[in-house]
Design brief:
By secondary structure, the chain is mainly alpha-helical. The protein contains 2 helices and no strands. The chain is elongated, with a radius of gyration of 23 Å.
């Protein structure tokens, strides 16, 4: 039996630079939102636990101001850079992409 037809895949699929930036932006925004909500949830739980131990009512605004927003602001550029790095490592850019 001769094999006259072969399927040959050369290299990995490549994305243009615009798609890479759009993907990195979307992943960074979604990741920062997820980080915001996870940090907010954890901060509220910790503040409730400390409030129960101290028998006082905690100010929940601190959960937003001191924990969740700074966590999201750190996660946003970190995820953007990580996603661009990951895309460059997994899908190397060709000379024809600009």
């Amino acid at each position: 039996m001769s094999h006259t037809h072969q399927l040959i895949l050369r290299g990995k699929p490549r994305l243009p630079l615009g798609q890479r930036l759009a993907t990195a932006t979307l992943v960074a925004i979604l990741g920062a939102a997820l980080t915001f909500f996870a940090a907010l949830f954890c901060a509220i739980l910790v503040m409730l636990a400390f409030g129960m131990v101290r028998s006082s009512r905690p100010d929940m605004r601190m959960a937003y101001r001191l924990v969740a927003i700074p966590a999201a602001l750190v996660a946003l550029p970190a995820l953007f850079v990580f996603t661009l790095w990951w895309q460059a490592r997994v899908r190397p850019r060709t000379a024809t992409e600009i």
